[in-house]
Amino acid sequence: MRGLLDARHRVVVLDDLSTGDAAALPAEVPLVRASVTDPAAVRWALITHAVTGVVHLAGRKSVAESVARPLAYYRQNVAGTLTLVEAMAEAGVRRIVLSSSAAVYGAQEAETIKEEAVPRPMNPYGATKLASEWVVGDAARAGSLSCVILRYFNVAGAWAGAADRPADARRRTGTGLVPLVVEAVARGESPTVFGHDYPTPDGSCVRDYVHVRDVASAHVAAVEALVGGGGDAVYNVGSGVGYSVGEVLDTIRRSTGINFVELHGGRRPGDPRR
Ligand SMILES: O=c1ccn([C@@H]2O[C@H](COP(=O)(O)OP(=O)(O)O[C@H]3O[C@H](CO)[C@@H](O)[C@H](O)[C@H]3O)[C@@H](O)[C@H]2O)c(=O)[nH]1
């Protein structure tokens, strides 16, 4: 949203605030508090705010939670995308940028995963993102949409200014490795590494971490490509370099100056090694 505002686009946000925070929105951005699974609310928002394109980010995104609550993930991520695409057709809105995930690839042999790789999701989260891609891609092929699909790798980092938000708004920072480790260390606790027996150099999982600002820039580029008449493309959004959980912890030790000890937990269900 901040990337789009900086690029002088007008933005309206639809969010059920189940994990989001209204206090994080600048005053000039209208908020429609509703779920993307509510067809009437989505249609109302598109028409009332004269929306010309959608950046669809309204999904749940925790691998572990998706393993425990798969149906909630299909409801939110797949039914939500279907509801949105149908509402867009009814409101005559044709452009969409879909937030997808590297989780669609699952475990792949190649060192660097290209967009042409055959997706093989290995957890419900990845499956729901792939199914969302099919909904959007098939609607685009039928001529009712122009789309850009962005498959993000592991998003990390913060937007400048986020630290100025009230402590209450900062509390819900996310379910990813970096916030969980930083929060544990800040509480004086030891973070847990999930799995240390993977076939990787140090035995922990390897991921490609990409800064949230770079992910935002990718969205702005995708929006502008659609406005310029382009689209119907799939892009990976990552740094192209993998780091193990152990390397991320070492980096956090160096940058905080806190020499914390980690605990070794078992493998987390649904985790690919890289
Ligand atoms: O306390 C923790 C938290 C995580 N991990 C490990 O750290 C790695 C990264 O985990 P996490 O930050 O939860 O990300 P992923 O499960 O890889 O999934 C993320 O990355 C995907 C893209 O690859 C996104 O689509 C997802 O939304 C996002 O949650 C995994 O090996 C985890 O097992 C730990 O060892 N300890």
TrEMBL record:
UniProt keyword terms in alphabetical order: Carbohydrate metabolism, Isomerase, NAD
Pathway participation: Carbohydrate metabolism; galactose metabolism
Presence of keyword Isomerase: yes
SUPFAM superfamilies the UniProt entry points to: NAD(P)-binding Rossmann-fold domains
A GO molecular-function annotation: UDP-glucose 4-epimerase activity
Cofactor(s) needed for function: NAD(+)
Catalytic reaction annotation: UDP-alpha-D-glucose = UDP-alpha-D-galactose
E.C. no: 5.1.3.2
Domain NAD-dependent epimerase/dehydratase: 4-238
GO terms, biological process: galactose catabolic process via UDP-galactose, Leloir pathway
InterPro entries: Epimerase_deHydtase (IPR001509), NAD(P)-bd_dom_sf (IPR036291), UDP_G4E (IPR005886)
Family recorded in the similarity comment: Belongs to the NAD(P)-dependent epimerase/dehydratase family.
PANTHER family according to UniProt: UDP-ARABINOSE 4-EPIMERASE 1, UDP-GLUCOSE 4-EPIMERASE
Protein name: UDP-glucose 4-epimerase
Taxonomic classification: Bacteria, Bacillati, Actinomycetota, Actinomycetes, Micromonosporales
